[in-house]
Amino acid sequence: MPPVAAIRVDTSYLASRHRVAPFTLHRPATASEAGELLQRYGSHAVAMGGGVDLSNRLKLGERVDHVAYLRGAADLTRIEQDTGSLRVGAAVTHQEFANHTLVKRALPDLAAVWRRLGNPRVRACGTLGGNLITADAHYDVAALLAATGARLIYSPATQRLLTHIEFPADARVVLRYETAYKPAASVAIALSDRGAGTWRVRIVVGCAYPEPAVGECVGSAGGGAELAHALVRGLPEPVDDHVASAAYRRRLITVIARRLVADLAAGRDDDEVAL
């Protein structure tokens, strides 16, 4: 029998806890302490909320010297109501956000959508800030925040630390979000009441662009297909890649937008639109 040749297999792309390099773990008690840590150590330090994405990167061999664990900072894990806004700490988990009384009262549609994001592990461990900072085009948080007009607040010490997210809570916002066709496209439609029967209608599309694309117009809740087409016309050309062509994505976005607008105009209370 001829000798069996040795086969060398490249395992450099495989994730493993054995590939995690040593690092110093810091537990800042406040957002101010966390910002100072990141400023002091610069590119050698990273912030960690739930660690959903960071742990995967470390298992793939990424090296960091210092990790600032944010879940121990009380002011980063609170949800508070201010005059005209809902202030959410960046280290709040998706589950905490979706189930919080203030969120369900001020933004009931958003809370309902949030309860469907990700899987149980992501909802229990992942944080709003971590999802944003990861900047994955297929993640949902950036699109939903853009749809509701949320404002991002960063640490005075460094722009690398997102500390809070502020949602406008003084206006009625009605929201629908469709993710059934990811990774080709996800679409959010949000209506904000402007009074006198008019609405600010905003469309936000994820997955089809490097970052969420936003279109906006003013119309009536019963604007129907014309309103949907007007929203889509204001969007840039989608990317053309191995997932889907630009032409397919634009057609898909148009169909989803038309259905979501029709659903909103019908005043349905479903958590999810049946397509």
- Summed over residues and divided by their number, the pLDDT gives a mean of 88
Contiguous runs where pLDDT drops below 50 for at least 5 residues: 269-275
Structural shape: globular
Question: In which order are the strands of the major sheet placed?
Answer: 4-5-7-6
Strand content: 15-25%
Question: For this structure, what is the CATH homologous superfamily of the domain at 173-266?
Answer: CO dehydrogenase flavoprotein, C-terminal domain
Q: What is the fold named in CATH at topology level of the domain at 173-266?
A: Enolase-like, domain 1
Total count of helical runs of at least 4 residues? 10
Category from helices, strands and their pairing: alpha+beta
Number of strands: 11
Written account of the structure:
This protein is 33% helix and 23% strand. The chain has 275 residues and is an alpha+beta fold. Among the domains are: 18-69, Uridine Diphospho-n-acetylenolpyruvylglucosamine Reductase, domain 2; 173-266, CO dehydrogenase flavoprotein, C-terminal domain (Enolase-like, domain 1). The strands form 3 sheets. Strands 4-5-7-6 form a 4-stranded antiparallel beta sheet. Helix 9 runs antiparallel to helix 10. The chain is globular, with a radius of gyration of 21 Å. The termini are far apart. 36% of the residues are buried.
List keywords for this structure.
alpha+beta, 11 strands, 275 residues, Enolase-like, domain 1, four-stranded antiparallel beta sheet, Uridine Diphospho-n-acetylenolpyruvylglucosamine Reductase, domain 2, 23% strand, disordered C terminus
